[in-house]
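quick one, 399 residues, struct below
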Amino acid sequence: MKTTALFVDDEPNILSGLKRMLRVMRQEMDFHFAENGQEALDILASQHIDVIISDMRMPRMDGASLLTAVQEKYPHVIRIMLTGHADEEAILRTVGVVHQFLAKPVDPDSLKAVLSRACALQDLMKNDQLKSLVSSLGKLPSLPSVYAELQKKLMNPECAIGDVAAILEKDMAMSAKVLQLVNSAFFGLYKNVDSILHAVNLLGLDTVKALVLGVGVFSEFKTTPSAVFSVGALWDHSVTTAAFAKKIASMETDNKQLVDTVFIAGMMHDVGKLLLFSSLQDDYLRAVAMALEQGLSLCQAEQVVFNANHGNVGSYLMGLWGLPGGVVESIAFHHHLDAYPEPSFSPAVAIHAADVIYYQLNPKSSVGAPPVLNQVYLEQAGLWEKFGQWLDICREMRS
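---
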């Protein structure tokens, strides 16, 4: 079944231009077009849609309102917003709703690349086994409350760093854990950071937000201790992988948004393990035992037991929470780069490399066989010769 995309814009000329631009992709995707929000909702009610790409500025129902409604009624649809420079206030309304923003006028190659990745993600996510597995988990967890409050506060254009610090300081346990992380060697600050306000000033809001999300997720999932699967070890792995991946990304690009995306993705890349372990512990421990006894990777064992793996499950949850598309893709593909289109440096590549490097530097911490580096993909992306440099810099961070 082809991936289906719905474009929404109140200007018929723009829709006509999109139809011409996308003609070359009709073998891979089916396209639908709507001139207003209500027409788009009518199409969604009658057709299966995988991706919606909406203009921001439209009469009666603007793009923010439309995509908010789509998130509520059709949460699995990938939501992309087309925006101009004057849409800053509206963009704030869509924090946690939109997976990705594209600037207008959209570049044809950029749009095609985004749609190709969306196709690949939907192919990975739409299998019936995954849907069956997710439904068996019962009620899925909600976005951690402190992070959600933080997101809401940031929608206010007058929000100041002090307002952010005040939210975090209300939760003493959260503040303590965030400060513990900030003062760890990974951030290389070489000074004692004694307040959340100081942390935000030094590291930036996006990094602190990622730490809050990570701490919140690991605190809110309820798990029973196990002798063969340690949530504490998973937390250490997640934090370290995030730090490694951020360093790798900083070496490869000066795109701050990409680097921040990589850090959040690193913190969350194994959240599927936490969700499976907390919801289906007996089955998950069976996968752990299989990995240990048969020398499989944990990802391979999960596939045998659940017909899905932690990358699928984690990206499904992050998509429902409305995290950025780069985060969702990184979690989905960090063990499956071969299914990720157009080889190049991306958040998914950074997470894949950082994950492999972690287990190369900490071989005894692997449950079953460690993940294997996808050398073929790195060669295709022109990055294979960089891996040695990435390994060296991560080794220095760990020492």
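The first strand starts at residue 3 and ends at 8.
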